[in-house]
Structure prediction request, 143 residues.
Amino acid sequence: MALLNKQQIMEIIPHRDPFLLIDEVLELEPGKRVVAKKYIKPDEYWFKGHFPSYPVTPGVLVVEMLAQAGAVCALSLPENKGKIAFFTGIDKTRIRRNVLPGETLTLEVEIMKTKGPIGIGKAVATVDGKKAVTGEISFALGK
Prediction:
């Protein structure tokens, strides 16, 4: 059962369609950890061109999904309400499998370190328990 639906997510992060890339949040420890879901629908806009004969979700979009989940985690702290989390880096990232139409991504981010407005999170996206994308994402809070 969802802890946060899409409308509630939009109250925390500024992303909007077509670039709001998480559908719901299942678990949330503000400033520490988040688990979110993205349902990969067969009519997602990126499948029209990536690739028409073999639709695959671009790995960079999965990384963005993880970053948005991490932003929900960081911006859920009361002191960060109304701020924006800017994506500042990607390290140790591996795309381990294709993400296909009809699959569901589980997006997990654990904030490993923060110093002032800067933070680093360990990010893992899975499909049916199998790793799709792993890495470290960094962010800076602004506004």
About this structure: The radius of gyration is 14 Å. The helical segments are 6-10, 59-75.
